[in-house]
Each structure stands twice: as C-alpha cells, then as structure tokens.
Amino acid sequence: MNLSVPRRAAALAAVTAMALAGLTGAGSANAAPAAAAAAPDIPLANVKQHLTDLQAIATANGGNRAHGRPGYKASIDFVKAKLDAAGFTTTVQQFTSSGATGYNLIADWPGGDPNQVLMAGAHLDSVSSGAGMNDNGSGSAAVLETALAVSRANLQPTKHLRFGWWGAEELGLVGSKYYVNQLPSTERSKFSGYLNFDMIGSPNPGYFVYDDDPAIEQTFKGYFAGIGVPTEIETEGDGRSDHASFKNVGIPVGGLFTGASRVKSSAQVQKWGGTATAFDRCYHSSCDTTSNINDTALDRNSDAVAHAIWTLSAGTTTPPTGTVFENTADVSVPDNGAAVTSTVNVTGITGNAPSALKVDVNIVHTYRGDLVVDLVAPDGSVYNLHNRSGGSADNLVQAYTVNASSEVANGAWKLRVQDRAAQDTGYINSVKLTFP
To answer: What is the distance of C-alpha 261 from the center of its chain?
Structure first.
C-alpha cells in the first residue's frame, strides 16, 4: 500500500442476500440472485505457498520485488504461469515510470457478459526496502488463489470476470492509473465493479471494509457478519491504493484492508484482540517477510475475496456430469519417503470403468517435481498420472483422463503419491473420480 476455517456458504449467502436487498441499480456491482453458487473455502495453505514463492523470488533478487527491479518481473512471470496453466487469457501490459519499465498483468476468465465486467486486483510490487509480503504479497496471493479456485470450479458467472496485478503502486498507483487511462470510455462503462485487496494479512490485524459502492460494501460486511467478525470502515489508506484509479473515472469500487502503520486503539483491541501497537509494525520495512503475516486474518480475508467474486458475479458452478466419488481427507506426503495413498471407494457402478475416467488430483506440495503420482485400480493395476515433472512449481492441481475400461468399476481405487527427493513437503488435499 502507498501511504505518502470450515465452509460457511449457506449462512453467508443468506446474510448477503438480506444485506444487498434494495441495493441494485445501474452502474453498481448489483446484488446477486439468491440462487448464485456458494463460494468455496479458499485453502490457507495454498495462499501461504504463493507467499513463500514470492518471498523466494525477493530473496533471490536483492531482497525486494520493487518496480524496475528483477524481483518484480519475476513476480509477474510467476503469477502469469499459474494463470496460463489454469485456463485464463493473460495479458502483460508495459508502461514506463521513473525511467524503468513496469508491468501490469491482466487475466480474463472465459465467458460471462462482456458488457458487465467484475474485476478484482492487487498491487504486486513491494517497496525497495523489503520483500513486501503483507504489502502486498497478501492481497496478490489471495487474488491469485481465488482466480485458481474459479478455474477449479469451472465457474460460469453471469458477469465477465477479470483479475489484475498492478505495478508501481508504491510510486503513486502508476500501474493501475495507466491501465484505467488506456481504457476507452466505452470499456470503462462496462465495469460493474472493481474490488481491491491491499494488505489483508497484517500481523496485528483489524478488519476494515472500504466505504465506497454500497452493494460491494454490504457484500463484505455480510460475509464478516456471517462469521461473527465485526468490521469498521477503512480510513487509514482510503484513496491511496489502486481502487482510487478506478473510482476517479466513475467505476464502482470496494475492498478490504487489515491496517498499516496506524496504532490499534484500545477499543479496537477489545473488538479484535491483539495489542495497542501498529497494525503492521513492519510496514514498508525489511521485516515485511512471510513471518509478518497473521494466518487468521489472511484466511478470513481470502475467503471474503472468493465470497465477493462468487456473489457479485452471480456465478454458477457447472456440476460434473456423471457419478462422482471423492476423498477430501488430508494425507501427509513424507519428504523423500514411502508412498502414501488416498482411497476412493466406488460402489453402484455396473460393469467396467469407462475409457475416459476423469481423475481430479489436488496435492499441496512445495516442489511438484519431486512427486510420482499413480492411480491404482482395485485389482492393483497402476496408471501413472505424474512422474516428477513440473520443475520447481508448487502444488499439483490437475484433471487427468484414464482409459480404465479393462478394470471393474466397483472397489477401492487409490491415489498413490511418493516424494522421491529431499527438502520439500506437502499433502494430498483431495482426489475425485468421475464416472460418465
């Protein structure tokens, strides 16, 4: 920022529907219909892994990810690679500031009404004095994981979804101003809302909601009310993050914030816990590393990001066709150790498995290039899905198609995972089999 958990879908949907009643209207984000699909719980481990990767980028590039420095371009490349793999259409936009080339990253999810654009964004740059993990790795990572959740869910929203990561925010909102200034007025008029997330994991957090577009504001307030967390209107950095670039040209805006250098009052300590010190004592400092993050705040706010995207885009999730069997129990994968399995018990299917058995794999791991992943049929036949590919990328979230027509369908199918190299860890998050 530039200053110069279990799923709760049903309850949150009800709260939001009531909060948004009567707030629809031209030029605003508008309330979602009651039938909108519930947002998924955003895995905190995934968001934190993105932060770990951004920290590694900063460490390898002089300790920061600032505009004009190699760490910033590496951060753009990191986020872009994940979005490209998830099916987004990405665009890197270049601009010049302070004699150096800057970059914005824009990612569009296919589909939705192109005349109703809902956008979420965060600035990706840090100051030159540190890695910028709260400011603003936290917002960048949460927006990234929400975008990946959109892909995993195959979300089909009514509105067109767009995500953005801005450069040179710390130099005066340069990247987002450039993006907005390049938009013709006809394109600006298509925006139903822009959601901004800047510093959402402060170590001594408060829960602040931007006081801007009423529908967006009430969507966030409704989410936090649904989980019993009080909120306040954000004032410390109002107008000093990227939402101002959009607001200044008439686009409805909103967002979240957990506090920067201002001191938490005694009343706020009673409300949220913590201490009567700065919300973020490492604001714009070298100590703004991955240890400068409050996990509870990051988790709550990441879920709030997804809740707003699902609600305000009036999205529906396309259910898989066929019969689905799933195991969502976590199974730890030992570092350079023995193989482990997650079992999916299939019943009620007549005859053999299909020639196009869909296998959805979700493995949280810090280095997927260490992993060998197999699907083991009930009779012990092995179908290799992943064999130590993907290099240094983290996590393995992918759908595979297996010709299992020679196998009897019913029985205990197993996802078998083995880590065959040292120094990286993870766990099986879920495995799902879909029989068409």
So the answer is: 25
239 backbone dihedrals φ, ψ, rounded to 5°? 80, 0
Cβ distance 226 to 12 under 8 Å?
A: yes
Q: How far apart are CA 433 and CA 322, in angstroms?
A: 10
Give which of 375, 383, 372 is closest to 418, Cα–Cα.
Answer: 372
Which residue reads 């396309």 in tokens? 318
From the list 51, 66, 49, the residue with the least C-alpha distance to 130 is: 66
Farthest-apart Cα atoms in the chain, separation: 68
pTM score, two decimals? 0.71
H helices present in 264-402, as ranges: 266-272, 295-312
Structure tokens at 106: 């824009």
For 125-160, write each residue's pLDDT tens digit. Answer: 999 999 999 999 999 999 999 999 999 998 999 999
- Active-site choice (169, 170, 217, 234): 169
Taking each helix axis from N to C end, the angle separating 44-60 and 70-85, rounded to the nearest 10 degrees, works out to: 150
Residue carrying structure tokens 């979804």: 161
Length of the chain equals 436
Start-to-end C-alpha separation, the chain: 48
- Confidence label for 429 from pLDDT (cuts 50, 70 and 90): confident
Q: Identify whether 187 is a catalytic site residue.
A: no
Mean pLDDT, the chain, integer? 90
